[in-house]
Amino acid sequence: KTIHLYQEGCLLSRIVKPKHGKVLTDDAMFGGTSFTKNYEEALFVYVAEAEEEPENKIAPGSNIHPRFQSDYGEKYVGVKQPTIFVVELTKGIVRRWFTDDKGEAFCQPCFRPGTNILAYRKLPQSDLKLGAVYCFNRPATICID
Questions:
Q1: What is the DSSP letter of 133?
Q2: By the 8 A CB rule, do 73 and 79 touch?
Q3: Do the beta carbons of residue 120 and residue 110 sit within 8 Å?
Q4: CB 139 within 8 A of CB 122
Q5: pLDDT tens string for the chain (145 positions)?
Q6: Residues 44, 32: contact at Cβ < 8 Å?
Q7: What does the DSSP assignment read for 38-83?
Q8: How many Å apart are CA 42 and CA 24, to the nearest integer?
Q9: How many CA within 13 A on the CB side of residue 39?
Q10: Which of 55, 66, 103, 111 is a Cys-bridge partner for 36, taking CB atoms 3.0 to 4.6 Å apart?
């Protein structure tokens, strides 16, 4: 996996093998990108699936059944935990914006212009994740860090 960041047709940064799953590019539910540049640093944020944990293989013929894992349904079937990642363009480093152990989904990041203050949407952990497209009655929190 490689991420290429371009500005006006010029390659700004190339990040090889970031430690996360698939990049989520839809603007409607999870995705979104944002860029900020101030006197200290240049940052780019995006949403990707959290790093996948190795799956435990179940031997054929065993009585063990895999645990049901709910997903976001409809056009988001199979999407794992959305997480915000930040690229420090001057250093070429990719890291999680912060670490979350509660299983919450972090979506739609946006920098306040000229600062590194980030606003984003947080969806609480739930065993039943209602469909993302046709279910509008979904609790969410708007956060600013």
A1: T
A2: no
A3: yes
A4: no
A5: 788 888 788 887 787 778 888 888 887 788 888 988 876 788 889 999 887 665 556 666 666 766 666 677 777 777 888 899 998 888 878 888 876 667 788 889 999 988 889 999 988 877 666 666 677 677 888 999 8
A6: no
A7: -SS-EEEEEEEEPPPPPPPPPPTT-S--PPP-----GGGTT---EE
A8: 21
A9: 0
A10: 111
Write out the two tokens for 71.
Answer: 């997903």
Find out whether 105 and 126 touch, Cβ atoms under 8 Å: no
Direct distance between the N- and C-terminal alpha carbons of the chain, in angstroms, rounded to an integer:
29
**Best CA proximity match to 41, nearest among 100, 87, 105, 108:** 87
C-alpha distances out from residue 45 to 48, 71, 86, Å: 10, 24, 4
| Backbone φ and ψ of 128, nearest 5° | -120, 105
State the Cα–Cα distance between residues 71 and 127, nearest whole angstrom.
9
Q: Which two tokens stand for residue 101?
A: 């152990």
